[in-house]
Amino acid sequence: MQDKDLKNQKTKNKSKSLPSGLIVRSGKFVWTTLWHIMMSSLAPRNKSGEYIRPASQFRNFISTEAGNLYQPQAGRYRLYVGLGCPWAHRTLVVRSLKGLEDVISVSIVSPSPNEGIWVLNQEEEGCRTLPELYNLAVPGYKGRATVPVLWDMQNKAIVNNESSEIIVMLNSQFKEFATNPTLDLYPEELREQIDSWNEKIYHTVNNGVYRCGFAQTQAAYDKACKELFATLDEIDAVLKTSRYLCADKVTLADVRLFTTLFRFDIVYYGLFKCNRHRIVDYQNLGAYLRDLYQLPGVANTCDLESVKRDYYGNLFPLNPGGIIPYGPDITNLMEPHHRESIGKKMADS
């Protein structure tokens, strides 16, 4: 009887054992091969395995310059945005800060986990997907269909799909229609400083988190991660004596940094392996994030659930199970930031 029980126990234990080495090696080979194939489309890389972001293709400008096809007009332009996308989020923040909600309309697109494209939440211009909208603007277009898109409803054309340029236009070209026309997020006297911050932050932080998450070699990841946190440490030190990146004025540099910081603890810390520190762990950066989040209208542009769904639910190569985490709790973003007098104290001392 004891021998039978022992045999049953051995059989039971055997059934719970790990797969054989051959199965593990085979599975690893197949998955790694498929992962590289999927990543090659999702995240183009160089020979070192570093993620290389493709350049935006539509770079026209709205201006009052004589002869320019795209003139500032209320009700003529529409933004196509994904609520989870940090690049599109920039445009929503500037639109809100400037008070352009009644001037420039917004249409929401959502990523399709099965098709790998952005899909309009409701059909517009006879289009169901963003690639169809791009093809409406440029028949036969075969390039990437990304957000944000600044769309000219009058000419059925894409004005621009580069977020850094769209926010400059929103800041400067619609003042006569804006409810907050005196706010200048890109003042002439600060442009050199703003541009310097933008250059550094784009490479190491805005795109830096993607260089970490989309790295396809350990060396590429290590390099990106070190550069990311070196810049975050530098910014944290600057913010000890400066309320914003450029003294006491909110600028486009802050907007461009904010949309990455908002997503950092939610997705980049875990999913993209940017896990040396959370933003909330930084004394100055954490309070700075709360400061920006609490600016009038900004919190309304932030959609936690869309961010989690779009990253965890749709980046299949990084999260094959598609499981979306329950947290984090972001109610701390409404806690007092106590940054109103930073900078002023230094000037008075």
TrEMBL record:
Occurrences of domain GST C-terminal (ranges): 187-311
Entry binding sites for glutathione: 118, 144-147, 162-163
GO molecular function: glutathione transferase activity
Site entry: Lowers pKa of active site Cys: 268, 311
PROSITE patterns the UniProt entry points to: GST_CTER (PS50405)
Alphabetical list of Gene3D superfamilies matching this protein: 1.20.1050.10, Glutaredoxin
Cellular compartments per GO CC: cytoplasm
Transmembrane segments: none
Active site: 85 (nucleophile), 210 (proton donor/acceptor)
Source domain of life: Bacteria
Protein name per its UniProtKB record: Glutathione-dependent reductase
